[in-house]
């Protein structure tokens, strides 16, 4: 009987539980056992944090958000922060301990579900430690180059679009400009898709540095058409021309980390100063990660999970499952994490936005 272990790492995304469901049921139909490592690699570091997963235990998790295994973006075994007796944070490589437990527990392979950071760690285990690894791409940002879509993206876009729909009424009632900051890191997929679908007047994405004067011009032009309000969607990684990306400080044990965020508030202040319009900003933040996955994301996540077990059965390790329509394909993890997927200036969605009158700030 083969035993496989599955982990979920990085930020959570709608559809993670659907992947777990598919892996467990696909494996059990092959007579295999499945174990879940809590909080990324914690279960492989401390076997007490390893849980047995059976079809009965995962029977009702497909429609639920989050992950029953928990997740973390601070659990890299190759650089694990550990507090010593003096209270100091030291960085240790505990990857050998992970491999020792992996082999001692008799695992056949590891299915690592995560974004580029988690997949990079999995790739290191495959190359440097010989761990049989299969990757499943997970990011709401949809910025992994090797797959056409990642699960969680459709749900995040739907959440953002619903928020924009609701903001139209309050913006119109008060003749306000509403600036909405959405996630996406340094790719503008969430902002572009939700902004077009949600009827935004302006969409600002990292791929197109913007001129705030042109943003204000678009807002003022609305007045000529008896539209006294505006909706502006800003990706968290967007930046003005000749400016840098805005970060906010985020505290982390033992070090200081810079986190994207704050561009929405900056844009709102500039619009108010230049146009005189009553302007408010809103950060959707982690709302985009929560809630039940959409039908599209559920099906995509289930397909990813089932395909991962097929790769395991075929011994196709150090590869990631990728959606290459209409099929699920195996691509080397090294290729999948090599580049981030950016919005192209000739992308049809960009052309659509321009042609229906949305300002992109350039």
Q: How does this structure look, described?
A:
The chain is α/β, with parallel strands linked by helices and about 350 residues long. The chain has two domains: about 5-150 and about 295-325, Rossmann fold, CATH 3.40.50; about 155-290 and about 345-355, Rossmann fold (3-Layer(aba) Sandwich), CATH 3.40.50. It is about 35% helix and about 20% strand. The chain has helices at about 15-30, 40-45, 95-105, 115-130, 155-175, 190-195, 210-225, 265-275, 295-315, 335, 350-355, and strands at about 5-10, 35, 50-55, 80-85, 90, 110-115, 135, 175-180, 200-205, 230-235, 245-250, 255-260, 280-285, 320-325, 325-330. A seven-stranded mixed beta sheet has the order 3-2-1-6-7-14-15, sandwiched between helices. The radius of gyration is 22 Å and the shape is elongated. Mean pLDDT is about 90; it is low at about 250-255.
List the defining traits of the structure above.
alpha/beta, Rossmann fold, 2 domains
CATH C-level label of the largest domain = Alpha Beta
Show unreliable segments: 250-256
CATH topology of the largest domain: the name is Rossmann fold
Return the CATH architecture of the largest domain. Answer: 3-Layer(aba) Sandwich
Structural class: alpha/beta
Q: How do the helices and strands follow one another from N- to C-terminus?
A: EHEHEEEHEHEHEHEHEEEHEHEEHH
Average pLDDT reading: 92
Largest sheet: 7 strands, mixed
* Shape summary: elongated
Strand tally: 15
Count of discrete structural domains? 2
- The helix tally amounts to 11
Distance between the termini: 59 Å
Strand content: 15-25%
Instruction: Record the strand order, biggest sheet.
Output: 3-2-1-6-7-14-15
Radius of gyration: 22 Å
